[in-house]
């Protein structure tokens, strides 16, 4: 089995961490290929709950090699904090490998992320404030700092100087903030150098060799399709490639090595931060989903915006990512409703759209066209077989499957590792 990509189909927090953990037990490598500590993945193992931000969820699986790919941006202080937290809980983190080409988040970009959001006011994106956007901007602008730069102090200093020449002007003259010195930045970055050294590798080569030996590689996305910088609801997106294409650029694995794309799809929809959201529920029902589904951010603790399932988004995710299998998560959260509305299309200023509208202006005007499906009341968290689900829950899954046009291979019925119904093996073709 070659490489498998796992992505989020909506606006994030679909349950990618749990799905990766479930699959991680059967793969040799789990690679994080985009994003940074803006991600928040919750994995529940027995009574233990782990919140991962920067580390691939494979870190929790003994024997699996977790890899931070070149497409990731790393806050080194967060990396070591997270590692120490896991080590204190008895997790063996010694297998972690970090790409020499990954970019680091320098302290000035954390500051810039926050002050820019404040400056934007009502036009803000609602970022996580972790310096993600400015660091990817630096990467594209070719003024970024990479992991490998830490091992050449002269080069590191030159690069930090170059970046600060410009950044300090912005900080001081536009945002009225204190300028940051080259020394403090270099010192902070170098303070992590020796701890980092043994983890650093040419991860593209390492993964290619692993594939050559017939080993399995799982490429795990942070964020999700509609937060992708190209295919998402721009500008209300993150600054990386969170779709399946990003798995190649962010890891160095070629497209021809990938034969499976698994998309995680929540049984309803949530979003954190600003931006359009056609099926958003601003009433008691939204609050009900938030409470029942515990929809509060893993990273920032912000209440997640909640709404009904949107099949236009599901179809779009299937198309953009070349999805081979969907995993529906949190079906259990929908138990206890008389009827469950599902958005099948949009009405945009009187015109029906079955596909994602071409422009963001149209997407902002999209009104959901709902189909009402009958609900179910039973607790489904104990179900392990599709046939054990109440008839209306099965009907819901089958209707979603029809609407998104690709098979639903697994169904989450609770946060725990084993609370899942598998209909088709996600790793065996
Ligand atoms: P990620 O960012 O995609 O990894 O998702 P998060 O971890 O941010 O959010 C998903 C939340 O749903 C976490 O708290 C998970 O423990 C939980 N979860 C995942 N799958 C299921 C499921 O099938 N049912 C329920 N009730 N919770 C789930
Ligand atoms: P996981 O991996 C949900 C959102 C932020 C904001 C926008 C840009 O847990 O699914 P950024 O800090 O990335 O520049 O913020 O993207 N966002 C997420 N929303 N889940 C995530 O990650 C997210 N990562 C970023 O809320 O709207
Ligand atoms: Mg999350």
Secondary-structure blueprint of this entry?
Blueprint (H helix, E strand, L loop, with lengths): L2 E6 L7 H9 L4 E4 L8 E5 L2 E5 L12 E4 L4 E2 L1 H13 L8 E3 L3 E2 L2 H14 L11 H9 L12 H22 L7 H9 L2 H4 L3 E2 L1 H10 L4 E4 L23 H6 L8 E9 L2 E3 L12 H9 L12 E3 L1 E2 H11 L3 E5 L9 E10 L2 E3 L6 H6 E9 L16 H14 L3 E5 L7 E3 L7
Parallel strand pairs: 1-10, 1-11, 2-5, 2-10, 5-7, 6-8, 7-9, 11-15, 14-16, 15-19
Antiparallel strand pairs: 3-4, 12-13, 16-17, 16-18, 19-20
Helix pairs in contact: 3-4, 5-6
The chain binds guanosine-5'-diphosphate (GDP), 6-O-phosphoryl inosine monophosphate (IMO) and magnesium ion.
Give average pLDDT, whole number. 96
Which stretches are poorly predicted, pLDDT < 50 over at least 5 residues? none
- Gyration radius over CA: 22 Å
Give the spatial strand order of the biggest sheet.
9-7-5-2-10-1-11-15-19-20
Main beta sheet: strand number and arrangement? 10 strands, mixed
Estimate what percentage of residues fall within beta strands: 15-25%
């Amino acid at each position: 089995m070659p490489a498998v990509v796992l992505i989020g189909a909506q606006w994030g927090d679909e349950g990618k961490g749990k799905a990766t953990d479930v699959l991680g037990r059967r793969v040799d490598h789990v690679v994080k290929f985009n994003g940074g500590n803006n991600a928040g993945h919750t994995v529940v193992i027995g009574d233990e709950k782990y919140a991962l931000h920067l580390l691939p969820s494979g870190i929790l699986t003994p024997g699996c090699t977790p890899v931070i790919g070149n497409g990731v941006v790393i806050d080194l202080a967060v990396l070591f904090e997270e590692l120490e937290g896991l080590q204190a809980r008895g997790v063996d983190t010694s297998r972690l490998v970090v790409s020499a080409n990954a970019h680091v988040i320098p302290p000035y970009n954390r500051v810039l992320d926050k002050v820019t959001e404040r400056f934007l006011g009502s036009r803000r994106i609602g970022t996580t404030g972790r310096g993600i956007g400015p660091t990817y901007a630096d990467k594209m602008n070719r003024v970024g700092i990479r992991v490998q730069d830490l091992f050449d102090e002269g080069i590191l200093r030159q690069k930090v100087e170059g970046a600060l020449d410009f950044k300090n002007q912005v900080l001081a003259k536009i945002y009225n903030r204190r300028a940051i010195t080259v020394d403090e930045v270099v010192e902070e970055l170098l303070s992590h150098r020796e701890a980092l050294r043994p983890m650093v590798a040419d991860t593209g080569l390492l993964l290619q060799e692993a594939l050559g030996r017939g080993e399995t590689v799982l490429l795990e996305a942070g964020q999700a399709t509609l937060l992708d910088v190209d295919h998402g609801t721009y500008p209300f997106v993150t600054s990386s490639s969170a779709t399946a294409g990003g798995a190649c650029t962010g890891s160095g694995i070629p497209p021809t090595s990938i034969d499976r794309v698994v998309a995680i799809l929540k049984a309803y929809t949530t979003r954190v931060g600003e931006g359009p959201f056609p099926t958003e529920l601003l009433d008691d029902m939204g609050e009900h989903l938030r409470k029942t589904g515990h929809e509060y951010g893993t990273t920032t603790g912000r209440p997640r915006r909640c709404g009904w399932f949107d099949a236009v988004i599901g179809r779009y995710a299937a198309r953009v990512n070349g999805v081979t299998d969907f995993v529906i998560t949190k079906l259990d959260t929908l138990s206890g409703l008389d009827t469950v509305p599902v958005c099948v299309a949009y009405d945009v200023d009187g015109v029906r759209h079955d596909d994602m509208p071409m422009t963001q202006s149209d997407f902002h005007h999209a009104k959901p066209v709902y189909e009402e499906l009958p609900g179910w009341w039973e607790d489904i968290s104990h179900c392990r077989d599709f046939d054990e689900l109440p008839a209306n829950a099965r009907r819901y899954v089958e209707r979603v499957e029809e609407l998104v046009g690709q098979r639903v291979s697994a169904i989450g019925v609770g946060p725990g590792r084993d609370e899942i119904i598998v209909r088709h093996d996600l790793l065996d073709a």
